[in-house]
Design goal:
With about 325 residues, this protein is α/β, with parallel strands linked by helices. It has nine helices and 17 strands. The longest helix has 27 residues.
Length: about 325
């Protein structure tokens, strides 16, 4: 099978939640289905696809349920929250896609793989945790959790205190051989959900889950490299990337080269941290590792973006 028709599609966890009035499990399932229809169209056009997805809001919901039930049940560790959300979101994506394949007469099947991602135990991010998770607390509760459970906590813009965890660099997809085998046999694979469950290896190679959050887009870039994908397609809430974002000079851009993307990143004023910046960083990582092109767009514009008529395309040269 030619790698020229192989792609990784990265779906944001936030894209499954349209607004605060539509965030139930059923609402998220319907939103997943709207995105899956566009992915099914890609597959109908001959692409072999691996799907990655975010899980930030969903992990937040699991943590909140755990906190509310803590008087009666054990709390759920962060790495297990990641595993739980991978299973639930993977189920929604897989079922929606299978139903699309039935409607379109596509003889393909979907497998969701609960995926671990190895990170370095000495990654500098562990010395400077910055990723807020969970609910707001008052100062007394935050300090109790810091003392009792070893949490890192910070005061967040006068809104209360929150736990923060590290966001280490993804190094190795533990289940990568299984994912490759499935892709090679023409399964659509859902994997590296939420960036993967962060794990570290001891000197004997034994793995242990850690409390951390891995960037979904960087994990998607690593997945794309590992399976020799030609294309990394990142879906988000905007149709195109904008330069000088948030200023009067803001303007959409339809095409960039790798060199231009690196230059815009270095300038520091174009892409918002925690939003577009990690997506551009992931694209740079993928293209520098040998990928051919990347596209950033919203789900509704996928087909047009693949045809070069929408979205932002970034190429090696």
């Amino acid at each position: 099978m030619s790698a020229a028709k192989r792609a990784v599609v990265a779906i944001g966890g936030n894209s499954l939640i349209k607004d605060r009035q539509h965030q139930s499990v059923r609402d998220q399932y319907i939103a997943a289905g709207e995105t899956c229809w566009h992915v099914a169209s890609m597959i109908e056009d001959g692409w072999d696809v691996a799907i990655a997805h975010g899980n930030g809001p969903q992990v937040g919901f699991i943590l909140r349920r755990s906190e509310l039930a803590a008087h009666e049940l054990h709390e759920v560790p962060l790495d297990v929250c990641g595993a739980d959300s991978q299973g639930a979101i993977g189920y929604a994506l897989a079922q929606n896609l299978e139903n699309d394949f039935t409607r379109l007469g596509i003889p393909r099947h979907v497998v969701a793989v609960v995926t671990q991602m190895e990170v370095a135990a000495d990654d500098p991010a562990f010395q400077n945790p910055t990723k807020p998770i969970g609910s707001f607390m008052d100062e007394a509760a935050a300090k109790r959790r810091a003392e009792k459970d070893g949490w890192d906590v910070v005061e967040d813009a006068n809104r209360g205190w929150r736990r923060v965890v590290a966001s280490p660099k993804p190094l190795r997809i533990v289940e990568v051989d299984a994912i490759k085998t499935l892709i090679d046999n023409r399964f659509v694979v859902v994997s590296v959900g939420g960036g993967g469950i962060p794990v570290v290896a001891d000197k004997d190679g034994n793995l242990t889950g850690v409390a951390a959050v891995i960037d979904k887009d960087l994990a998607s870039a690593l997945l794309a490299t590992c399976i020799d994908a030609e294309l990394l397609l990142i879906t988000t809430s905007v149709a195109q990337v904008s330069l000088d974002f948030g200023t009067p000079e803001q303007r959409a851009v339809s095409r960039m080269t790798l060199a231009e993307a690196k230059e815009r990143l270095a300038e520091g004023r174009h892409f918002a941290a925690g939003s577009m910046k990690p997506k551009i960083e992931a694209v740079v990582q993928f293209l520098e590792a040998g990928g051919e092109r990347a596209i950033i767009t919203d789900p509704e514009s996928v087909e047009l973006a693949l045809a070069g008529k929408a979205g932002t395309t970034i190429v090696r040269e």
